[in-house]
Amino acid sequence: MLILAVDTATTVASVALVEGERLVAEEVLNIPQKTHSERLLPVLVRILAGTGVEIEQVDGIAVSAGPGSFTGLRIGLGTGKGLAQALNKPLVTVPTLDALAYNYYFPETLVCPLLDAKQGYIYTALYWGGKAGLERLTDYLALTPEELTGYLEGRDEPVIFLGDGIDLCGAAVSKLQGRAFLVPEASRLPRASSVAFLGRQALAENPGGVPLTAQPLYVRKSAAEINLEKKRAQLRRG
Questions:
Q1: I need a surface site. Which of 29, 33, 217, 223 has the fewest CB within 10 A?
Q2: What is the CATH number of the domain that holds 158?
Q3: What is the pTM of this model?
């Protein structure tokens, strides 16, 4: 099964092509100065041209569905939907935190991906690296760094941290002392190859994929929605 995957959930843009358990090609661009709308299509073209794969040969499209940047999620999912519809191929959405945790986990270890959700929040979930693979233990959460500290209290297992939210959570991580392991910076980035491998698993279980009406996994409201609610509350009070 040949899977084409796209991840634009953060400032990092990534496209990958996998076949079975084999990574055929992947490109990761960590260039915040450029928008996803500028760089995504050229990356897709380079991946296909470099591998000699015709787009019609792809068996399925996998997209990182969030949580993450609201604009990035809409661009990625919109691209995935367009490809799936044009090619008449199944679409599968993969939670961004699942894919990030999949980047770097070991048996008998907790994995805690951290994504910068802006406005003082991080997106996170807790995973267990079991013998059968990666198991999610919690809901997808939007927490402050202080809330994360309380969330991890009472855990005795080693915890692997990765993602662009690590720098915001120094206090929470430091309280774990010798049980906290920070993934090297290059391995903290979201990767479309992880989206592709998890997407392949999902399509094996559900060959039809998800409807083209699928929506991003936002977890929390946008800044515009939060500000609008504040203004409405002020008007009701005043």
A1: 33
A2: 3.30.420.40
A3: 0.91
